[in-house]
Amino acid sequence: MRMRTRLLSLLLILMLLSPALGGAAAAGSTPATPPSGATGTTGTTGAAGATGAASGAGSAQQQRFTDITGNWAQPFIIELQRSGVLTVPADGLFHPNQPVTRMDFAVWMARAQELTPVTGPAPNFSDWSQVPAADQGLVAAAVKAGYLRGYPDGTLRPLQSITRLEMAVVFGRILQGYGEYPNPYYFQAFVDGNTIPAWGAPASLTLADGIMYGEPATPEAAIAPNQPTTRAQTAALIVRFLEYRTQHYHVAPLPTPPTPASFLVGAWDSNTQEAYQNLVQHGTALNWLIYTGYNAEADGTLIGYDSPRTLQWVSAHPMPLLVMVQNDWTNDSFLHDPAAEQRFLSQLLTVLERSNYAGVNIDFEGIAAADGPAFTAFIAMLSSALHAQNFLLTVDTPSETAADNQASWAAAYNYAALGPLVDKLILMAYDYHHPGGAPGPVGPLNWIQQVLAYTTSVVPANKVILGLPAYGYLWGSNGQTQALWEVGMENQANANHAVITQDPTAQEGTFSYTDSSGVTWVGWFLDPQGLQQRLALAHQDNLGGVIFWRLDYNAPDWWPVLAGH
Q1: What is the pTM of this model?
Q2: pLDDT tens-place string over residues 478-511
Q3: What is the 3-state secondary structure (H, E, C) of 381-435?
Q4: Residues sharing a CB contact under 8 Å with residue 271, sequence separation 6 or more, in sequence order
Q5: Contacts of 344-352 spanning 24+ positions with Cβ under 8 A
Q6: Residue 333 is assigned to a structural domain of this protein
Q7: Which residues, in sequence order, are CB contacts of 303 under 8 Å at separation 6+?
Q8: Which domain holds residue 409?
Q9: pLDDT reading at 257 higher than 90
């Protein structure tokens, strides 16, 4: 299969060797971490749990891994976090240089491959009890899919480090499922290729397809089959595998409806099990989606991959599906580099055309005020190129009013200049109060009214989309802040016998309580009544619609309200 391509790939493998995995890594990107309350963990060896600030478009405070800055694999780690494969633990540590365990790899691959957690009888391994209860469903799914197999003595050895060969074999088995055939010939290019046992034959596909590279050796490259794989290396390998899967075995949805609904009700859709469950159960209440799948590096390179199950769902429920592209530059050199911008445009068009996306959602945050004109020029370039091919262009912006439009956070986003260039301008109307600040409403209605009054004075109202938060914050008197899904806020109040009231000015739910250790907590969140009021305001002001961050933030009380619009 594709023998010539594979031979060229093999030559590239030998040319691109590095101490890490053979590929040069680009700059990092900004994570988007679910609020605490998500089910499941990423294992016990470091990146466990799902605690952290609700983050994403417009979040002033974002929970991110604190030990990956400058690491060669930073962009791959963050891409997996954004897509829901990784979650940030309470201590914020990823431990990139530690070996990855078989269990953590199984959990990550189960999420990456969109497997449904398995319930019922546990797999028959003598050491199954070593797998934490929160991870057992995903590990069992990985075992069922054949990604993780036991040893002849009946053990799974979930806490043991996984070797390079074991990992490569997993990728190879999946590729065999797509019809590719192993060819041990590719092992012969490596000094230790003759040490690969027969069961390792599927690993040849990862070498032929450019997913895994060799380790340096003299005089030839080595596969190093028994060497442990670090967590950073694993993140890079998973992303490379998923990019290869997207490029060669993607599932394209049906063509997008030519005319979007007059009033859009949508969600940013991450590639998590929770998001997909909400899509299946409640997706008919929406009429557009933005998939949060890609990140732009400072050199214009796109890192990311599509979600097959999301594309399949949209095929059965045709609606505009846009792809979000985020940034995480340490500086705004991208906006002053024509070559980087053209590389970005070329790769973006490939993504849009390959998967029949209706368009793109640009979520470039943290842009310096001085770079505002360059950002507008970049959007103008995109507008011309994308509209020429009938793709939609939407841009996320911080919310501002006439009084504060020169504030540092929002000054780079010139509403009046951006309005004529975009199809929709999405106002991130949340994090008015945020972690690290004083307690208060996340997106108060009176502030939103001021934002809309200013925005619609310079941008046609039907181009304006109101972004809403499906999460809330708990501020503690000890200085800590927790982020919870909307239903998590309600559950927290009920568990502590706190009465939720609606603030008459902010039109948000709020409550307070003192826990057993004497810490007083104050919570604010957008409750269903407040959601109804914001939807009514959007209709009253003839806006283009609403969208919420994010689809995987469980807000069951919202769906009946959204379905009415």
Answers
A1: 0.87
A2: 999 999 999 999 999 999 999 999 999 999 999 9
A3: HHHHHHHHCCCEEEEEEECCCCCCCCCCCCCCCCHHHHCCCCCEEEEECCCCCCC
A4: 83, 84, 85, 114, 291, 292, 293, 307, 310
A5: 344/296, 344/300, 344/301, 344/302, 345/381, 345/382, 345/385, 347/300, 347/301, 347/302, 348/302, 348/382, 349/385, 349/389, 351/294, 351/302, 351/304, 351/306, 351/323, 352/323, 352/386, 352/389, 352/391
A6: yes
A7: 26, 29, 75, 76, 79, 239, 243, 294, 295, 297
A8: 252-470+527-563
A9: no
**b/e for 61-79, b at 16 or more Cβ within 10 A?**
bbbbbeebeebbbbbbbbb
52, part of any domain: no
Question: Whose structure tokens read 């200085």?
Answer: 479
pLDDT for the residue numbered 3 = 36
Which tokens go with 369? 């005020």
CA distance 447 to 553: 24
Tally the domains of the chain.
1
- The residue assigned the tokens 């499941």 is 40
Distance from CA of residue 278 to its chain's centroid? 16
Judge whether residue 17 has pLDDT over 90. no
What is the 8-class DSSP label of residue 116?
Answer: P
The answer to whether residues 235 and 73 touch, using CB atoms and an 8 Å cutoff, is yes
336: in domain = yes
CATH classification at residue 330: 3.20.20.80
Q: How far is CA 503 from the centre of its chain?
A: 33
| Beta carbons of 544 and 463 less than 8 angstroms apart | yes
Among 130-134, 188-192, 509-513, 547-551, which is the least confidently predicted range?
188-192
Q: Give the phi and the psi of residue 380 in degrees, each rounded to 5.
A: -65, -40
Across 420-439, average pLDDT: 95
| Pairwise CA distance, residues 35 & 177, whole Å | 35
Q: Is 61 left (phi over 0), alpha (psi -120 to 50) or beta?
A: beta
- The 8 Å CB, 24+ separation contacts for 122-129 are 123/150, 123/156, 124/154, 125/150, 125/154, 125/155, 125/156, 126/153, 126/154, 126/155, 127/155, 127/156, 127/157, 127/158, 128/156
Question: Would 189 be classed as within a structural domain?
Answer: no
How many residues are recorded in the chain? 565
Alpha-carbon distance of 323 to 271, in angstroms, equals: 12
* DSSP 8-class letter at 201: T
CA–CA gap between residue 288 and residue 358 (Å, rounded) = 10
